[in-house]
Amino acid sequence: MIPSIHKRGSETIGLLRYLYGPGTDEEHIDPHLVAAFDPLTPDPGRDPEATFGQLQRLLDQPVNALPANRRPKKHVWHLSVRAAPEDPILSDEDWAAIARRMVAATGIAPDGDDAACRWAAVRHADDHVHIIATLVRDDGRRPRLHNEARRAQAECRRIEADYNLRRVASGDGTAAKRPTSAERHKADRQGQQRTPREQLRETVRQAAAGAHSEEEFFDRLASAGLLIRQRIAPSGDRLGYTVALPGDRNKDGEPVFFSGSKLAPDLSLPRIRERWTLPTDAAAAVDSSRPEQQSALPSVTGPAFARRRASAATWQALLITDHGDDSIAAAQIAAAGEILDALAKTSAAHTRTELREAAFAFERATRSHIKAVRGHDRALRQAARDLIRSGPALGRGEDGATTAMLIDMAFFLAIAAANWHAKRHHAQQAKAARQTAEHLRAAYQAAAAHPMDVLRQRGCRMPPSLRHRQAAMLRHAVPDLAEQILAEPGWPALAATLADAQDAGHNPATLLTEATQRRELDTASSISDVLVWRLRRSAHLPAAPDSPQDTTTPDKHRATSPTPAAQPANRPMNGTARRR
Known about the structure:
It is elongated and about 95 Å long. It has 21 helices and 8 strands. With 580 residues, the chain is an alpha+beta fold. The longest helix is centred in the C-terminal third of the chain and has 35 residues. A 5-stranded antiparallel sheet has the order 1-3-5-4-2, with helices on both faces. Strands 6-7-8 form a 3-stranded antiparallel sheet. The chain has 3 domains: 162 residues, BirA Bifunctional Protein, domain 2 (2-Layer Sandwich), CATH 3.30.930; 172 residues, no CATH class; 95 residues.
């Protein structure tokens, strides 16, 4: 159940006409009074003798009793309370009881207060009720409404428990503003799945992802086709900005502009500037938390290279989120949102929908009351910039396979973010991160299907003698997991990857031992699938394997001893297991 306190108004009659009227899209059905401060309050919805004017005068009487110079300019208070779509339809009596609880909780009409504000609750739909009140008490004083939004939220949580309704995670004031009902109806009329406010928020977030300066940020906004207005001080400095979609017009045909802060709290210009401001005490931390050196990676540029770099940065962010200071971990989670925004913008069509949904969901997880110390997230932000600058990735070959590699890592960073928020009782953020993980899971399955299938085919074509040696080595390196891995459908793909690692000069037994010591492997539903990506990334193997026609031959490989050789892998393994 979600309470929404609307902007205060100055005309009681105007709000009454809306509540009892047909609605923007004729969605108001049978408007009628379900409760009020006085049982004898007239109901223009059900009583043909009652008028809007009668109800307005009754509600406004304490306001009009004051001298004109003492009347508040904005005296109309408006609260709507909406049930979840899956909740049962409540009766008028239930909504009346809920309305009385809400006016008592918010301070409009505390229980037992005979001089409280006057109010009325109007129901014009199955799933919600509107409460209108005038902000002058019968004794002429003003109501005490301090923190009424928070108190309304708390009362809704109690109502959910009492009526066995869907439990909604409590808010903490850091969420982006929800689209208004008028915005939602407008989007429905135009056949749009998202409102202009939501579309703009997504576009502005993508423009900010990895941007290094204001000029770059505004250039990206312009390239995305948005209408932009900038507030400029007499000194020439930018004070703020507003954006609009070219096709989103009001009734007068003018563009509907939104400021950055109205899109999301972290999209105001001052908050965006924080992203590229490096605190003086953060430089050393940036160096110490820098992802693994990239010199050993293939000397290529483009989407695949950018995705490998982003995978390394994401792994480092995962470690910091698990073990770092809260403010630094908060910065890593915020910057992870930029990685997802950049990935959604640059990935191929068959993964783009799920990646967009993942980025859209994770936006809520990037903000909490723990202040993020920017600068420590430099590696992730640079990785997001690389993704944008490398351009769109293909859905096949090395581009497609490294996309799967990065999505795999982003999945576990989302899980880490969910756990981090849950431990700090950030219910909405934890839920958003878990939703993100589900979208990333679906995106991974689409991205990884072809390269994993090719690897499995290659593994199945390997000579039996080589497969036996690989199995013996597996049993020696990871005895506790070997039989489970050998029984999995993905074992041939792992066998092919072990052969590739050996061809590249690595000791596959050492790589396996290191890989299985990484976090969360015991929860993986497909351990072989997990280890394939870990080994291919840590050994710097091509993410996209050769076609199955390039069959491995026996004389191409050295004999593999079941005992790990003394030769170490070139560098430690970076990766995590996947909950699939």
